[in-house]
Amino acid sequence: MPIILSIETSTKACSAAIHQDGKLLSVSELYNEKSSSGMLTTLIEHVVKTASLKLQDVDAVAVAKGPGSYTGLRIGVSTAKGLCFTLEKPLIAINTLEAMAFSIYDLKSGAQNPVTNNQSPITNLLCPMLDARRMEVYCAVYKEDTLEVMEPTQAKIIDETSFADLLEKHQIIFFGDGAEKCRTTLGGNPNAVFLNQTVFPSAKSIGALATRAFEQQQFENVADFEPFYLKEFVGTTPKKISL
User: Fold this and answer.
1) Which of 47, 55, 54 lies closest to 30 in space, CA to CA?
2) Which H, E and C letters describe the chain, residue by residue?
């Protein structure tokens, strides 16, 4: 019955959670327009205390590996690696987009499908999207019923032809903070469905997926592990001030 501490800092939403044998014991989530990852230590302390545990009780630390915010991923991964070194515990890394897809999969598995028509003869797909810049998003496509990968994680510039082949045969549910800016471009297709609420990645889903990874002994090399940035960081040059 592994106890797993999970950390999620891929976006402006930041969260931490404790799972025991796949069951959620405690979660703390925070959203701030600027950045919430600076509160990560406080969130971790809160979920451990709420679960009536000590950090030394956890069997592994799980972290969202990306894609996502460069700064957020650095903070999350650095914190997770620091805990693993200090506590001498294994590190588990979960794809951020897979965790987002799992959150929808988990919602549907416990209730009547709230988004799509269960009588539809076509297979539904899930497409989590994280905002990159302009019309670019980080995205992947998964089967709704099994989370099998239909399109791998990628940085994609969205236009009218995006996902055309899949949309011919499948209904695709688009969600995440990158989905709304794609609504006008893709929304004309009757098989394109957009959730009305923004879905952020959460440590709740990271921990649920990490339990399976723990059972399969899918651990990372703590010393060498780096976030999955997907794209190289592009900095900006400060403008010179004329005197």
Assistant:
1) 47
2) CCEEEEEECCCCEEEEEEEECCEEEEEEEEECCCCCHHHHHHHHHHHHHHCCCCHHHCCEEEEEEECCCHHHHHHHHHHHHHHHHHHCCCEEEEEHHHHHHHHHHHHHHCCCCCCCCCCCCCCEEEEEEEEEECCEEEEEEEECCCCCEEEEEEEEECCCCCCHHHHHHCEEEEECCCCHHHHHHHCCCCCEEECCCCCCCCHHHHHHHHHHHHHCCCCECCCCCCCCCCCCCCCCCCCCCCC
| Phi, psi of 156, deg, nearest 5 | -130, 130
Rounded Cα gap, residues 29 and 166, in angstroms: 34
Q: How do residues 171-194 score in pLDDT, each as one tens digit?
A: 999 999 999 999 999 999 999 999
Q: Would you say 71 and 106 are in contact if contact means Cβ atoms under 8 Å apart? A: no
Q: What confidence category does residue 115 fall into, taking pLDDT thresholds of 50, 70 and 90? A: very low
Look up residue 129 and give its two tokens.
């999207």
